[in-house]
Amino acid sequence: MKKINALMSVALILLLLILSNAILNHTSTDEYYHFTLEDIANGLTVNKNISISANGVTRHYNSNGFADYEFSKKKDNGIYRVLVIGDSFTFGYGNPANETYPKLLEKRLNSNPDKQYEIFNLGLSGLNTYLEFSLLSKITDELNPDLIIVGFFMNDLDTEWIPGQEKCLEAKEARIKNGAIYLYNIVRYFPLTRADMYFLGQYVNNDRGWNCFKEGLSGLNNLSSQKNVPIIFVDVTLANKGHKFYPKLTEMTDKEIKRYFKMYHVDIPKDSVPFDMFYNEYKHYSLKGNELIAKSVALQIFNISAQEI
Fold it and tell me: Smallest Cα–Cα separation from 44: which of 62, 64, 68?
């Protein structure tokens, strides 16, 4: 009887592994384009001076390859220039350009006549911390910023080593890659959604993806020192802070990021109910969600409150 029970346990584990590989390795089919290391090396030529419509929203990519208004690389006297870089949540998927948090931040800051700000939205779908370092290393000199803000989202660790090439993966894959980690997490945190499993699979110390994340942070730190430009991180993850594993994941990433940079978190007001008000139908931030981030950044980093605007 014990032998039969043992065999059944083994069979169940094998079945779960098969299901995890079949279901969790499903790659995202989002309509928007995920940028790669090759695109960055080629100067983002793939999306210069074109318009792309997705889900009823048209976004125009300027001559520099970013979905922002056309901007001059030359900085005028008296301008305080900020580069905001991040993934699709910074890009503002599902929103027009003027409803993304970098442009809402620009509007807030320039409502104060004492100082003139330029906020460039360099967000691109699929960027992770390693790719953000790669992109900034190519454009920081010519854009000459006074400050760089990295909009960090929970899946910015989503990178993986390219076998045989000794370099980090070219873009986010939006999938769980390790069935064994999945089994560990499902036992530890049961019950889990597919999104839960995706995020948990990235937070594994000394995993190749985790090491790529740390390599990106180290590169950004060197870039900040060499170019004499301060870099700060803002966690733009509008997640349920009471979630059973979110505090632990935040603790892990904060520890690594704070080795080099100041780290800010967006505070969600307690009266912000329902929570879904921050999201659009495409699982990205609504105008209200982006306004919340812009307000929080204006207050925490630039010391500009709503009363001053």
Answer: 64
Q: How far is CA 267 from CA 203, 227, 275, in A?
A: 23, 31, 13
Is residue 162 domain-resident? yes
Residue range 184-239, pLDDT digits in tens: 555 555 556 666 666 666 666 666 778 888 989 999 999 999 999 999 999 998 86
Answer whether 229's CB lies under 8 Å from 140's CB: yes
97 vs 267 pLDDT, higher one = 97
Q: How many CB atoms lie within 10 A of CB 243?
A: 14
| Residues of the domain holding 87 | 30-173+196-308
- The DSSP secondary structure of 182-242, one letter per residue, reads HHHHHHHH-S--HHHHHHHTT--TT-HHHHHHHHHHHHHHHHHHHHT--EEEEE-----TT
Q: Which two tokens stand for residue 266?
A: 């967006």
SS3 72: coil
> Is the residue at 20 inside a domain?
no
Q: What is the CATH number of the domain that holds 157?
A: 3.40.50.1110
DSSP letters, 111-160, are TSTT-EEEEEE---TT--HHHHHHHHHHHHHHH--SEEEEEE-TTTT---
Spatial distance between the Cα atoms of 24 and 27, rounded to a whole number of angstroms: 8
